[in-house]
Amino acid sequence: GAGVSQTPSNKVTEKGKYVELRCDPISGHTALYWYRQSLGQGPEFLIYFQGTGAADDSGLPNDRFFAVRPEGSVSTLKIQRTERGDSAVYLCASSPGGTPVEQYFGPGTRLTVT
Amino acid sequence: RKEVEQDPGPFNVPEGATVAFNCTYSNSASQSFFWYRQDCRKEPKLLMSVYSSGNEDGRFTAQLNRASQYISLLIRDSKLSDSATYLCVVNNASNYQLIWGAGTKLIIKP
Questions:
Q1: Strands (DSSP E) along chain A, which ranges?
Q2: Distance (Å) from the C-alpha of residue A107 to the closest C-alpha of chain B?
Q3: What is the pLDDT of residues B40-49, one digit of tens each?
């Protein structure tokens, strides 16, 4: 069975540009999470989806960040007007239900804003 | 004060030794606790959940001390393949957020 996949694996963009990061969760997993991780830090929560709806988006740092999951499966994290401080590894995780037990992570997208 | 704190290490340990590290959390309402393992430039993977009664999985033992608000991880007979960063994770019952520590780096030396 396929695990969580994320594309692209690496993204280099210029400051001010728009980027989209994609996450394909494990089939049948209803819960999906986005995190970002900077070097030497643990993952920082961004947003949690249960099905199609964002159940908790309190971790999004500002309104430049937005995420969707229109059909309850694939999710896209969108970042507008990127800043150098947005550079990090963006991790997606999924789990079978609404509880956070045993989240399965994708390999991440390494975003570099120049 | 961070919600979840860990000693960043690195812990340099000879192969075959026993190593233990702790993680402290600040929210007394925390309900669920986990240890994740993360290899360099890889994603985190669940190592074990931590139960109130403590739990053991092979060479790994996790303990929870609610009174002092810390969890611990003990690794016995350490292997070279145990080299990784170990992340302490805490969940509050009021939401689904996982709060992550910054991780403890473990290096097992031959």
A1: 5-7, 10-13, 19-24, 31-37, 44-50, 53-56, 65-68, 75-79, 88-95, 104-105, 109-113
A2: 5
A3: 999 999 999 8
Omega before A43 within 30 of 0, i.e. cis: no
The residues in B 23-52 lying below 8 A from A, measured between CB atoms, are 32, 42-46, 49
Nearest to B96 among A98, A106, A107 (CB): A98
Total H helices, total E strands in chain B: 0, 11
Cis preceding-peptide flag for B10 (omega within 30 of 0): yes
Least confident of A51-65, A90-104, B21-35: A90-104
Torsion sign (Cα): B61, B62, B63, B69: positive
Contacts B32 to A, Cβ<8 Å: 99-101
Q: For chains A and B, count residue pairs whose Cβ atoms are closer than 8 Å.
A: 54
